[in-house]
Amino acid sequence: MAKFKCPGQDMRFWKPKDVFEAPCPHCDAVMEFWKDDPFLRCTSCGRKVRNPKIDLGCAKWCKYAEQCLGYVPQVDEAEDSICDHLIAAMKDVFRDDERRIKYAIQVLEYAEDILSAEEGNPLVVKAAAILHDIGIPEAERKHGSSAGRYQEIEGPPVARFIMEDLGLDDAVVDHVCRIVGSHHSAKDTDTPEFRIVWDADWLVNMAEEWAGKDLHELAALIERTFRTPTGRAIAEKRIQRNALHEGKKT
Predict the structure, then answer these.
(1) In three state form, how does the secondary structure of 190-249 look?
(2) Which run of H or of E encompasses 113?
């Protein structure tokens, strides 16, 4: 008697799109994924690569998932993989501009810190943090300037192309593009995800933008600028730590 397998994991029910090719984010070699592969080892560079479009189906919640798949699935596997690919795409856009690549990674790290205590869609937050400055090269090429207003014009189309190429959900793509298109002016959106990315961006910027301000000025700037309690608290701790380091009274 044939052993029954859940239709959600039975390949007889799969469609052609459930087996697909994707580039390795480390060396660009073509890799073939099945939709439920959590990761594969690239045969070209040997690096471990997460599946950018993983679809665990019912295994995300079924108590028999381990017996069915042979491992315990992690819901955030797909999210981590997508972020890896977004980072690779961001680096490709910035090419040798290590300063801006490092800046984007710092914003992502702060966004993740804030997200740990604030409500928000993790994928939207992380994608927007990685891609928020993605319009800079095109702004400089077209307008001869990286000013914020030009970034907000040129960034969303580049971000949209990258995310659609990865097959992200339309709602996620639209939300991230609104954040990218407002990350300097805050003109078109004020979602929880936007506030997280806004604060993360300012946490990286504040050391340079607010240099030379006294403690009272800094406290007022933090109160006016930051949009999440967690972002504000991180900023205040940084100011207090710097003041103690410099021997100032708080």
Answers:
(1) CCHHHHHHHHHHHHHHHHHHCCCCCHHHHHHHHHHHCCCHHHHHHHHHHHHHHHHHCCCC
(2) helix 98-115
Contact 106, 44 (CB under 8 A): no
Cα 201 to Cα 132: distance, rounded to the nearest angstrom: 9
The whole domain housing 52 covers 15-75
Three-state DSSP string of 59-97 = HHCCCCHHHHHCCCCCCCHHHHHHHHHHHHHHHHHHCCC
Mean pLDDT of the 203-207 span:
91
CA dihedral (169, 173, 176, 178) positive or negative: negative
> Same domain, yes or no, for 83 and 60?
no
pLDDT reading at 236 higher than 60: yes
Rounded Cα distance between 247 and 166, Å, is 50
With 70 as the cut, is the pLDDT of residue 58 above it?
no
Whether residue 240 has pLDDT greater than 70: yes
In this structure, the answer to whether residues 70 and 86 fall within a common structural domain is: no
pLDDT bracket for residue 74 (50, 70, 90): low
84 part of a folded domain: yes
Q: What is the pLDDT at residue 248?
A: 46
**Final residue of a domain: which of 48, 75, 102?**
75
Look over the chain and give the mean of its residue pLDDT values, rounded to a whole number: 84
d(CA 178, CA 128) in angstroms, rounded, equals: 9
Residues 138 and 69 reside in one and the same domain: no
**Does 160 share its domain with 42?**
no
Based on the domain organization, do 208 and 169 belong to the same domain? yes
